[in-house]
Amino acid sequence: MALKTREDYLKALRELRPNIFKFGELIEDVTTHPATKRTVESHALNYDAANDPALKDIYATTSAFTGEKILRWNSMMQSSEDLIANMRMKRQNYRRTGSCTGAVCVGWNAMNVMWAVCGEMDEANGTDYQLRLKNWILSAESKGLTVAGALTDAKGDRSLKPSQQPDPDTNLRITEVREDGIVIRGAKLMICGTAASQEIFLLPGSVYGEADQDYALACVVPRDIEGLTIVEATRPSDRRELEDTAAVETPDTGITQGWLLFEDVFVPKERVFLCKEYKYTGKVIQYFTANYRACIGACVAGQGDVMIGASVLMARLNGLSAKVFTDKLVTMSVNNTITYGLGAGAIALGTKHPSGSYFADFHTAHTNKVMVATLPYEVKRLTQDIGGGIVETGCMPSYKDFTNPQYGHLIQKCLKAGAGSAESRFKAARLSEWLTIGSGVPGCMHGGGSPDGAKLVVRFTTPLEEYADYARKIINIEEEISEPQKKLKN
């Protein structure tokens, strides 16, 4: 089949029912509205790349089902090479957009996770989930879909389980099971790339017990399904992106996060892949986080590459040689390589599931998540350090002031420093600001889950007793050294 193009993608988005709001306004066309057109552009660049001879090997592949050429983000990940290709695509995306492209990322991971879980459920329970999923995947391949992935619920009171919440709608749940499908209600929050997606893959947000079985659901829905309202979150540079000077002050790319509000949404049976089988929610979370947390190292590395580039530009535009900052630039490069390399290492140490899906090593992948929640912030700090004060929010006039006929020339005189024009320095400073504290910031801390959750996995997968035994034997300690018993207080 012919690969879908930018034009095909934009046309498909325009055909969707408007159901996205921002600043209280219904967005009629996400491809042109100032609040969403940048995230759409970030995703459209993927279609360009898949049809570009120089990049197609990264962005396109062959279908495991049909053998035909397809977009990579609709493919099965069944080997370490497939997962490394995922990483290569993510890093390249950040290098080309400076930001996240969630609708060619999370849904892709979700379908591969559910392929494995569906296989386990079918074998144990005699269900036909994997056949349903295969039919949907074939459709996604044929249509070249962008698919957002939604895990995070509103959650409500963190000390209570979903079924104990005063308001059950704080978590997405099944309210009715019918012969032909299910009805769902509740919320998923902070979902990346929904405005640029054609469909949304919904997964359970946590591990559930029997009391919370109504919350154990996995399905995929059209982004414009009846009963779904999406509200786009706001970010530091949102107002600037709505200005008529936005083309100068912000990149043409970016990302948005959606709040998904479901009100009695009917999902046909053929789109449902988990329905109250709560015992499998742990497997969903385990498999999803393994691959996602391995590959997210490529995301922050790619943006880190752009931050190095922006820092080089700022140094030169400030009148200094980039060589002055060699040590800082090297530190940035090392940090980028650590997250990328740890992700690749997790994949290399991974295993193939009986279903054919391939999963990264859990311990190494979760270790990478901890690094992703720390090292990129040092890269951002160094970007600001090298760039100087004007790369921080609130330190530079707007472009309207820069071009004002009365006093703009005075601002331009102040901004002219080293190589290049005053306008180039203005743009480079805005880019550094955008990358470090603006809309270009990816979810380093909580994207793909909390680093505290990752540390728990690292804790439970670190065999302390085994390591203590290595040490005891090396120094010839014969006796067992056990943990001391808790002393009772008087």
Protein architecture, described:
This protein has 490 residues and is an alpha+beta fold. It folds into 2 domains: 6-282, Butyryl-CoA Dehydrogenase, subunit A, domain 2, CATH 2.40.110.10; 290-460, Butyryl-CoA Dehydrogenase, subunit A, domain 3. The chain has helices spanning 6-14, 37-50, 56-59, 80-97, 106-125, 129-143, 238-242, 246-249, 281-317, 326-348, 362-372, 375-387, 399-402, 408-415, 422-437, 451-460, 464-474, and strands spanning 20-22, 25-26, 60-62, 69-71, 147-150, 173-178, 181-192, 199-202, 217-222, 228-232, 257-268, 272-275, 351-352, 358-359.
Question: What layout of secondary structure does this protein have?
Answer:
Elements: H1 6-14, E1 20-22, E2 25-26, H2 37-50, H3 56-59, E3 60-62, E4 69-71, H4 80-97, H5 106-125, H6 129-143, E5 147-150, E6 173-178, E7 181-192, E8 199-202, E9 217-222, E10 228-232, H7 238-242, H8 246-249, E11 257-268, E12 272-275, H9 281-317, H10 326-348, E13 351-352, E14 358-359, H11 362-372, H12 375-387, H13 399-402, H14 408-415, H15 422-437, H16 451-460, H17 464-474
Parallel strand pairs: 1-10, 5-8
Antiparallel strand pairs: 1-2, 3-4, 6-7, 7-11, 8-9, 9-12, 10-11, 13-14
Helix pairs in contact: 4-9, 4-10, 5-6, 5-9, 9-10, 9-11, 9-12, 9-15, 10-11, 10-12, 11-16, 12-15, 14-15
